[in-house]
Task: structure prediction
Amino acid sequence: MKRIEHLRALSSDHHHALALARLARRTAVGKEPIGPDEMWQEVIDRFRRDLSRHFAIEEKYLLPEMKKAGQDELVERTLDDHKAIGELVASKEGPTRWRLAAFGAMLNAHVKFEENELFEKAQECLPDEALEVIAKAHAEIEDGRD
Result:
């Protein structure tokens, strides 16, 4: 299904997240010129700068509306994914290459889940007013970005 205007900015964030996930996975197996420690720092920086903002928008605006619409399973899966990704980024356990591979796989799977399931269902069941609030919140947060 084509992404509706109100969710396009969040979908655009996903494009950037997929690129980061791919770069992390490729770095983990030595297919990128960047070293694993440098790449892990990039993951941390991008998580703090981009992914955490994206997660916050979803958690504050999208997920409560989805819960109201009776989509508890999608909400719980999204929250579980956000928590797991955040915990991995904060972790210092395991070799850096392993963390890069795990991060890349988790983020890739999460984005595909949101695009194919969460956003599709949001387009079907959320009222335009709720979707407008989500889009406006994203725009305001992005405009206030450092």
